[in-house]
Specification:
The complex is a heterodimer.
Chain A lengths: L1 H44 L12 H11 L6 H15 L14 H36 L4 H15 L2 H15 L16 H34 L2 H8 L4 H27 L5 H6 L5 H11 L2 H29 L10
Chain B lengths: L31 H11 L1 H23 L17 E2 H6 L7 E7 L1 H14 L4 E14 L2 E13 H5 L1 E6 L1 H14 L4 E2 L65 E3 L2 E7 H9 L4 E2 L10 H37 L1 H16 L2 H30 L1 H14 L3 H8 L4 H38 L5 H4 L3 H9 L7 H28 L9
Antiparallel strand pairs in B: 1-9, 2-4, 3-4, 5-8, 6-8, 7-8
Classes of the chains: A mainly alpha, B alpha+beta.
Chain lengths: ~325, ~500
């Protein structure tokens, strides 16, 4: 009885610590995010403003907005106005060049679905396949299966994604004519024709993810398989399968599961290059266009977006480590 | 004699009358470095990768020298043209012949191809790869239409172009023709004689209203070269084509200049003094890809080495300070590196390009972008090493003897951690090459004015013509792919050789 109560108390203390740790990390992340946003914001505002078309109906409105946003005031004031607008009425400004006069957030939201869908398709099948290959390679360590998988993983991880994108586009789309060369136009994201045209970019995105998960799984599982508790599990009478599934895999998922979470957050970001090659009208393409077209309000938004995703992915990975295996507290003081 | 039965008196001590003392070691001692090299040599894949890497580096050095073109030579007509070298093409081996596939050529088109060969002597058709017969209803009757898939030599198929010259230039080409005996200027064909077709300089024969060749009874083309000397732009005293009795005109007068029908393949020789020879074809700018890859690789590799060197230095010093002092110094510095590492690389590169490119140049600002965040990994690594060593007894001993902080850091702690620090260099370089290629591929950084071209630029140019000129992306892809694979294998091999304890982890 007494012992049980003690354990309970320990557990609540543990989860309290966990919550405190999580909160600390989140607060710290928000702090970092604001510092980065401020730096980028100032650097972007320091750039010379692009000239507005003189005969456009929006020009006058944009000039008035600039006045209201304090374009000639100190940068701190500008940042304050910017934050106030963002937090009080989700106003990220209007596009001043590419989509002249349209709210930036609206444009951005339009571009989000294709990016997310393509990446989601990609990771939905690649994570199981990657982990599966990794497990297979680890179980067959030092056989031809392992050598083949490891070599392919090495090759795939080394080669940049636009090289596969080119190979896929040339062989599958052009030579064999299985798929359209670029993404179908329109916004019917879930139609069969759209799905068909999404296959090449999904494939191009997939190789790297498969290889990444395969490598981590293999490395982790080979290490776990040789550890002493596996020997113990076998000596106490478990079959090899039982020991592997119940003990080895569980332990190696301590590393893999946070990776999966990180990957899920990361899909929001997508890939600039793949979107560029397959003409996916996503966030990456929007960012590139904003950079080349000097549409700074869009650029501020995408910068914040990418920063937030990067930080959030890292945070989720760290925290989920802590939740899955309480012995690990990444970034905490010893 | 039996070994068991050697009498005892035949035995004697080897060193019977010698003084016994320690001897110097007979075998050569092996240092850490030599030992690592032996371990490296045993790793077959790394050794092979090193050789390939050496070859790729050699390519980068030699290719731009070997290529007859430099990167600034941009031909305006031979754009995205396939690999071609005349001496190999003439052997008909099936490669380097400028082959380009043309689908669904009907009989009229086949005649037009044939006509090109008849006029210039350079037959563009390399072979017929497929024949399709389709039944079509035509004016109430079923007739069979045959179409062919053919391979043509793109260089010969380009054939004639219209070009306007000044009188001086026209004169110069004639002189060059006289010297070399190569026919550049072909007789003028008046559009009026070929059903008013004015946009196809390849037609020199009688055609019907649809532009299809009309043949005589023997099946030959009927030349319709203009003999109207009143239209001639300038005096022509040079090579004449066979069958010319001196009456053909070779130019068409325009105000202050002459327009000619010229054979581009030969005009190219007039321009560059050589026949086209593109081992890997040309890209979208008409540059030689063979040379372009070398030029791009030179830049990429040098840039990557420079970036890595700077980042390693900064990272090592930063990490050393963090790790050595610990406490609030470490805290503050870690916060700074956290913030810097949170900024997306695309954003850093873009902002540096926009702000600094005017002042320090494109390359300078690109370098700054890499340096701003690139050292963080190195700093983290060094910091870990410092935490590991700084509490140990030999450091305490050195401190007791009065060693300064700087001396402790760089003479005592740093050398202990140097193994893992050095080997990470070899893995930093491919990472830099990869990011650099991505940025130039996306066009965020444009290095064409500085470096001529880069592999990323070549790839993006190639990718925009993936259906018409796959070679333009293929060769840079192969080079980049090999380079990255070999650099990584080489780096892994080095790491395993220098840190035998970490062997096999994440490779």
């Amino acid at each position: 009885m007494n012992c049980g109560a003690n354990e309970n108390q320990k557990e609540t203390e543990g989860s309290f610590k966990m919550i405190k740790y999580t909160l600390q990390r989140i607060l710290y992340m928000i702090f970092v995010f604001f510092v980065i946003t401020f730096m980028c914001f100032v650097l972007i505002r320091m750039l010379p403003l692009p000239a507005l078309p003189p005969d456009d109906i929006h020009t006058e409105a944009i000039l008035m907005r600039r006045e209201a946003l304090g374009y000639n005031k100190p940068y701190l004031v500008q940042f304050w106005i910017f934050l106030k607008n963002v937090f009080t009425n989700f106003d990220w400004g209007v596009s001043e060049k590419l989509y002249i006069g349209r709210p930036v957030l609206e444009v951005f939201m339009e571009k989000l679905p294709p990016t997310i869908i393509v990446n989601l398709y990609s990771i939905l099948w690649t994570i199981p396949v990657g982990i599966g290959l990794g497990i297979w390679a680890a179980l067959k360590k030092n056989t031809w299966v392992d050598y083949t998988i490891s070599t392919l993983t090495m090759v795939v991880i080394s080669v940049p994604s636009f090289v596969y994108a080119f190979l896929i586009q040339y062989t599958l789309c052009f030579k064999l004519r299985l798929f359209p060369l670029i993404l179908k136009g329109g916004t019917d994201w879930f139609s069969p024709a759209m799905f068909k045209s999404m296959v090449p970019p999904v494939l191009a995105l997939s190789f790297g993810v498969i290889a990444g998960f395969c490598r981590t799984t293999r490395a982790e599982l080979t290490e776990v398989l040789t550890s002493e508790f596996m020997l113990l599990a076998r000596t106490k009478g478990l079959t090899k399968t039982q020991a592997t599934v119940r003990h080895a895999l569980r332990n190696c998922f301590v590393v893999i599961v946070p990776g999966i979470f990180g990957e899920f957050i990361g899909i929001l970001g997508g890939s600039l290059i793949i979107e560029n090659i397959f003409a996916i009208p996503g966030v990456g393409a929007l960012t590139l266009n904003a950079i080349n077209g000097q549409d700074y309000n869009i650029f501020v938004l995408t910068t914040c977006f990418y920063t937030a995703i990067g930080l959030a992915a890292g945070l989720v990975v760290d925290i989920s480590y802590g939740f899955i295996d309480p012995r690990i507290r990444m970034g905490s003081k010893k | 004699m039996e070994y068991e039965k050697i009498p005892a008196e035949q035995f004697r001590f080897v060193q019977e009358n010698e003084n016994l003392h320690d001897k110097a070691l007979q075998t050569k001692s092996k240092g850490f470095f030599a030992d690592a090299m032996i371990r490296f040599g045993k790793n077959k894949s790394s050794v092979i990768a090193t050789w390939i890497l050496a070859f790729l580096l050699l390519y980068a050095i030699v290719a731009p020298i070997l290529s007859p073109y430099d990167i600034h030579t941009q031909d305006s007509i031979y754009i995205n043209f396939p690999p071609f070298i005349r001496s190999v093409a003439d052997k008909g081996l099936g490669f380097l012949d400028g082959a380009k596939t043309m689908d669904s050529q009907n009989d009229a088109a086949m005649l037009a191809w044939k006509a090109i060969g008849v006029e210039t002597g350079l037959d563009p058709v390399l072979g017929i790869t497929g024949t399709h017969e389709t039944q079509v209803k035509y004016r109430g009757q079923m007739i069979t239409r045959t179409t062919y898939d053919i391979e043509v030599n793109a260089y010969y198929a380009k054939d004639m172009i219209y070009k306007t010259f000044s009188y001086a230039e026209f004169e110069k080409i004639q002189q060059w023709q006289n010297e070399t005996g190569i026919q550049v200027i072909y007789p003028w064909v008046d559009p009026k004689d070929i059903s008013d077709i004015s946009d196809n300089p390849n037609i020199w024969y009688q055609v019907d209203s649809k532009g299809v060749a009309v043949l005589d009874e023997d099946g030959n083309f009927i030349p319709v070269y203009s003999t109207n000397t009143a239209k001639a732009g300038a005096e022509y005293n040079s090579l004449r084509i066979p069958g010319d009795d001196g009456s053909y005109i070779y130019s068409y007068g325009k105000s202050g200049s002459v327009q000619c029908r010229i054979l581009y393949y030969n005009y190219y020789q007039y321009l560059y003094g050589r026949e086209p020879a593109y081992l890997m074809g040309t890209n979208a700018l008409g540059q030689d890809i063979f040379c372009g890859i070398g030029v791009g690789a030179r830049f990429s590799i040098l840039f990557a080495i420079l970036v890595s060197a700077i980042n390693l230095t900064i990272g090592a010093i930063y990490g050393a300070i963090e790790g050595y002092y610990g406490g609030w110094v470490d805290m503050t510095l870690e916060r700074i590196s956290d913030i810097l590492s949170g900024v997306p690389f695309v954003v850093v590169t873009t902002l540096f390009q926009l702000h600094l490119a005017q002042r320090v140049g494109v390359v300078g600002s690109f370098l700054f972008a890499f340096v701003l965040t690139g050292w963080i990994g190195m700093a983290a690594l060094t910091r870990r090493q410092f935490y590991r060593f700084k509490g140990q007894e030999f450091i305490l001993a050195a401190r007791t003897l009065g060693a300064s902080d700087g001396r402790l850091m760089f003479k005592h702690i740093f050398p202990n951690g140097i193994g893992s620090i050095i080997t990470s260099c070899a893995l930093v370089i491919p990472g830099v090459i990869s990011s650099e290629t991505s940025m130039t591929y996306l066009g965020i950084v444009n290095l064409q004015d500085f470096a001529g071209t880069t592999i990323g630029t070549l790839l993006s140019q190639g990718n925009s013509a993936v259906t018409t000129a796959p070679h333009a992306a293929l060769y840079p892809s192969i080079y980049l792919g090999l380079l990255m694979i070999c650099f990584n294998l080489f780096g892994n091999g080095l790491r395993d050789a220098f840190n035998p304890t970490t062997r096999g982890i994440d490779d």
